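Support reply, case 0932

Customer input (verbatim):
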Amino acid sequence: MIKVIGFDLDNTLWPVKPAILYAEQQLKNHLAALDPGIHYPPDDIQSLRDAVLAAHPDYSFRLTDLRRAILQRLVQRQPEHHRQAQDIVETAMQVFLKARNHVTLYSGAEEALRALSQAYALCTLTNGNADVGQLPIGGFFQLTLSAEDVGAPKPKPDLFLAALAHFQCQPAEMVYVGDDPILDVAAASSLGIHTVWKTTVEAKLAADTVPASETIVDLTALPTAIERINARISTERE
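Our regenerated output:
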């Protein structure tokens, strides 16, 4: 039977685009208010990003370090800020990360998590840098892990294996819920973990091409999807 349910975060429990846009705007406002102000994002933001990744390829999944390094290079361009560059960058990162957690949950998310947490251990396994501990739903989770924590992003198995080890359970005793057919569903399924694909009505038309145990478009349907997985497990054991 299922013991653990893992969750992706961005575009699974909330839409990520509004959160990123809000955080970028807060960062832009903060940097513009400095004396002298710093224009963000600069016209060559992609070149800055490429230069940082060339020097630190692992920053491709260490998103907080990537942003911090980009800001460091940007701040250093202005001689007036050289002496305070480190403090400016750290304060800017605090502004961004706080705003990054300004999310709006999908309908039914909190209710589903509350119900499931009564019967299962819940955890988050994400490639992103949202901090679920800063959200009202944080208390539902017994474990929160990111790609930065384990040193590898999905679809690599490290996040899933870390969760299995933490809870001391077998893959067949875990369900993973995510929106991405490759990073979430296929990656977890390849390890023998049951999966729930959280998708849209339009994408559900291609559900037969995604190896998910269950497919939902609304998180209010998640508890029932977990029940169906458990029912199939019980039937297979008979």
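We compared this against your earlier run and they match. Two observations from our side: The chain has a mean pLDDT of 94. The CA atoms of residues 115 and 163 lie 21 Å apart. Please reopen the case if you see a mismatch on your end.
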